[in-house]
Structures are given as C-alpha cells and as structure tokens.
Write a structure and sequence with these properties.
This is VOC family protein. By secondary structure, the chain is of the alpha+beta class. Helices cover 16% and strands 36% of the residues. It has two helices and eight strands. The chain has an eight-stranded mixed β-sheet, covered by helices on one side. Strand 3 and strand 4 form a beta hairpin. The longest helix is centred in the N-terminal third of the chain and has 12 residues. It is globular.
C-alpha cells in the first residue's frame, strides 16, 4: 500500500497538471472531465462543469499525484486543497483505516460504491487532515 497525494484546483486544473507533466518530464496525463462521467438525471451537470477536470494522475519521482478541479459551488481554500489518498487492494484495510480515522473527525462521503471503485470514501480526521480511501481492484476506469 502507498499513500498518494490529491491536489484540488479552482478551475485551472488542466493547466496545472499539464504544467507539472512538463516540469517533471512525465507521460502526458490522461484527463477525465466531469462531462466524461456517467450522467444522473437527478443531478444534472451544470454546463460550466462539463470541461472541468474530475480526475488526472501523474507519477512524479515514483509517487502518484492526482488532480481535480473542485465542483462549481463547492468551497475552495488555497492551502487546504491537498489530501492524502489511501489506495489499497485490501478492502478490509480500507474499511479499518476509514472507521478509525472518522472517530472525532468529519465524514465527507461514507464508504460506498462509485462508478470508479467498489469502495470509496472521504473524511477529515480529528487533526484536520483530509483523507480519501479508494479500493484498487486492478481495473483502471480513467
């Protein structure tokens, strides 16, 4: 298991991830936009969100760094726009860490199935650290 880094941007994620790819000489990033995701009629996607980055990833000096724009209307605070991401092939390890870290913290999203993972969740621990948890079943959806 490795801890990955997740950076959020306020509408300029594409520019940032392409810049970092050039600076660190990495592969060209694969970029998934909010418009690329499965639609949900109960939650229509605002037009301004369709071209915004939902997810991109680079490997920089052996570390995985992931990127996303914040969804329109969601809070963005420069300096607080980084989180640690626990990615594991062991779903019980994810569940255990999530439930321990949520004690005294605030859950952003309970562990649940998403279109990209059988088990994903997010929280802020009691020390104010942002965490994301993602089960890696070996299938890449982006």
């Amino acid at each position: 298991m490795a801890l990955d880094f997740y950076l959020n941007f306020n509408g300029n994620c594409r520019e940032a991830v392409e810049y970092y790819a050039e600076v660190f000489g990495t592969e060209q990033p694969k970029i998934m936009t909010f418009g690329d995701t499965p639609s949900d009629p109960a939650y229509p996607l605002p037009e301004e969100a369709k071209s915004m980055v939902m997810h991109a990833r680079l490997t920089i000096s052996g570390s995985t760094v992931m990127f996303s724009d914040v969804f329109p209307g969601m809070p963005f605070v420069a300096g607080n726009n980084i989180s640690l991401s626990m990615v594991s092939k062991d779903i019980e390890e994810i569940k255990s860490a999530f439930h321990k870290l949520k004690e005294g913290g605030k859950v952003g999203m309970e562990l649940q199935e998403t279109f990209w993972s059988k088990c994903y969740g997010s929280l802020e621990d009691k020390f104010g650290i942002q965490w994301q948890f993602n089960y890696d079943n070996g299938e890449v959806v982006y």
